Amino acid sequence: MKHKTFFWFILPTLSAMLLFIALPIVSVAIQSLYIEHEQVLVVTENCGPFGCTEATAVDLEATASLREEQPLGRFNGLDTYTNRAHLAFAEIGESWNTTETWSAFFSEVLDLPFYWALAFTLTYTFVVTPFVLVLGLAIAVAVNNLPKMFKGPTIFVSLLPMIVTPLVGALILFWMVDGDGIIGATLQWITGDPTLSLKATTSLNWVMLIVYGIWSSLPFAFIVFYAGLQTVPSETMEAAMIDGASKWQSMRHVVVPHLMPLVIFISLIQLMDNFRVFEPIISFQAEAHARSLSWIIYNDLIEAGNPLYGSAGASSILTIIGVAFLLVPVLIRTWRDFNSKPV
Amino acid sequence: MATKAQSRLSPLKVVSIIFVIIWVLLASFPFLWTVWGSFKVQGDFFSKADWTNAIFGVQTLEQTGSRFTLDGYYGAWVEEEFWRSVINTSIVVFFTVTISLTIGTLGGYALARSGYKYAFWLLMVALVFRAMPHITLVSGYLLPFFEWNIWGILPTTIIVLVAINQPFTLWMLHSFFLNIPKDMDEAAMVDGCTRFQAFRHVIIPVMWPGVITTGLFSFLLAYNDFTVTRMLLSQENETIIPKIQSFLGSAQVEGNVMFAVAAVVSATVPLFILVMFFQRQIVSGLTAGAVKG
Fold it and tell me: What highest taxon heads this organism's lineage (chain B) (predicted)?
């Protein structure tokens, strides 16, 4: 295809992506270097019968006009990145010097909002992804063994947790694990503890969110593996059986290697999607116990009337750096494959 | 090839059947439970005393005189004006899907037919864009949109959703177009068509299966979106997902959780129908990217 034709064909989609994906990233980077204006204060003297008192008040008009003139705020350099709400270098340095043991140090670091969110996001990502891979493969193999007439309905039902809106799916589970909901009440009955609540402790909240994550992502891995299983060459399987391989051995040495490209594909998609975990925290109302990077950005932005663009910008840039770290291995691999291919 | 050994009920088969049954229950029970419960009163849906109340609707019978009630649906759709959000969602979803398919097919076709290196790099860039958490993009939109006075209206949200949709749409359509033989459009061009005429008269008639599958996923992205619609739409333009979230705050205080339950079920019904009619396309769409590696 000629360069010129290619250009006209790609122009609409490329300009949409540049304007609304690339440009916002630049805009976020700029915002992160600025901070909100301080309120303009005026000191007034009130003189009454008992002498004069000085009162400090916010000059709303002046504050508003200042915000109007410079909506970005005032220049703050990289200070937002290093403050307590983000990378908190000063606080970490201090904990490093004052704490004796590693565990004490880590518990102080985890009290810092950014590191707390990072800890949850990474735990969620790296627990959900392997579970989804292993269970997805198990279900795919099991469904593949079923008589044909059951396969269609099983796939239909399996698609539901994935296709349902994340916010809605999480809400449905949230109502069920409520102390008065079916799962919550059953758990109370099993443990004999009528005050047991999955929402009360941090660890149970994390478990709940991770279980939701697995439940909602499992169908995707299942479907992809199931499709992959249909393409396993039957000659190789028969050859393995004739050579005396057990079911488990042929699974381990024939099927799994055949599915390896799919494992990489699923891990890539899962890492990208799990890293931005956000809606379940809203639905489970778990923000007191679990916050993700996306959640802290959202929280800065919904600050009523006065969104903290600077803080949200800094968190966004740090999140994007995190995404870049996740993607680098994939990109390097693709780049190598691409270069080794004769063009 | 079914031999005797394969059709017999081996222990392995029993284990896998049990495993599948457990998964099917886990996947379907929450939905069945919530759909059934949405026709009950709150005392039954959240019944601590006896879970069978939720099935038989004991309190629903006491309070409303029937075992099923539409109170939740009435509250959500009429009192809380859920229908407004449904209209907004329909507008947003319709235009997002149409626009992103139109510009996506052009782009995907070009990427599939260009033999140059930059096409590959554009796909890589699209992959990186696909990985961006939506909330980071939203935090870049807010300030400029406020300044230009385009915040809160439907067209802005539609165009943003179209853009966020593009990386995925491009990847998928690109792999569908690769499956359409090159010879078809090249023959047309030898006969004197321009590239666009070849696309218009030769490719468009055969591309529908791929476009429909991609459209389903565009639909899901636009319909399921919470981050963008929650942050970029004003209250009167709210779509259903942010509307449900805003229910939660008010409903819990006023004891109207059943409104939210009814709204949730209403929001799930279109998705349910979608899976029912397009199961095959969804499955093929999920695997399309995978097979290409």
Answer: Bacteria
The distance of B136 to chain A (nearest Cα, Å) reads 5
The amino acid sitting at A92 is I
Query: Which residues, including other chains, have CB under 8 Å from residue B165's CB and lie 6 or more apart?
Result: B96, B100, B104, B218, B221, B222
Q: In chain A, which residue's Cα lies nearest the Cα of B287? A: A224
Q: Does pLDDT of A343 surpass 50? A: no
Query: What is the model's pLDDT at position B3?
Result: 47
Separation CA B112–CA A262 (nearest Å): 22
Class of CATH domain B77-292 = mainly alpha
Give the list of residues 6+ apart from residue A324 with CB closer than 8 angstroms, or none: none
* pLDDT (mean) for B18-44: 91
Please count the structural domains in chain A: 2
Q: What ipTM did this prediction achieve?
A: 0.89
Within a domain: residue A124? yes
Structure confidence at residue B228 (pLDDT): 94
Q: Name which residue leads in pLDDT, B287 or B142.
A: B142
CATH number of domain containing A211: 1.10.3720.10
Helix (H) or strand (E) holding A48, with range, is strand A41-48
Q: What is the pLDDT of residues B177-207, one digit of tens each?
A: 988 888 888 889 898 888 889 999 999 999 9
Q: Which chain B residue shows the shortest CA-CA distance from A328? A: B128
Contact B85, B239 (CB under 8 A): yes
- Within a domain: residue A332? yes
| Residue closest to A126 by CA, chosen among A225, A262, A274 | A274
Could you tell me the residue ranges of all domains in chain B?
4-75, 77-292
Interface subset of B 248-287, CB within 8 angstroms of A: 248, 257, 260-261, 264, 267-268, 271-272, 274-276, 279, 282-283, 286-287
- Tell if the CB–CB gap between B261 and A175 is shorter than 8 Å: yes
Identify whether residues A186 and A238 lie together within a single domain: yes
Taking contacts as CB-CB distances below 8 angstroms, the residues of chain B near A302 are 231
Nearest CA in chain A to B106: A9
Per DSSP, helices labelled H in A145-199 are: 148-163, 166-177, 182-191
CB spacing of B143 vs A71 below 8 angstroms:
yes
Measured between CB atoms, does B54 come within 8 Å of chain A?
yes
Structure tokens of B122? Answer: 């554009």
Please check whether residues A310 and A195 belong to one and the same domain. Answer: yes
Q: Which residue in A36, A146, A165, A343 has the most chain B C-beta atoms within 10 A of its own C-beta, making it the best mutation to test that interface?
A: A165
Residues A103 and A177 in one domain: no
- What residue of A is the nearest CA neighbor of B186? A1
Write out the residue range of the structural domain in which residue A93 sits: 76-111
The pLDDT score that the predictor gives to residue A199 is 80
Residue B28 · residue B272 · CB < 8 Å: no
Tell me the shortest Cα–Cα distance from B25 to chain A, in angstroms: 9
Residues A282-336: tens digit of each pLDDT: 999 888 899 999 999 999 998 766 788 889 999 999 999 999 998 888 788 877 8
Predicted confidence (pLDDT) per residue in A148-191, tens digit: 888 888 999 999 999 999 999 999 999 888 877 888 888 888 88
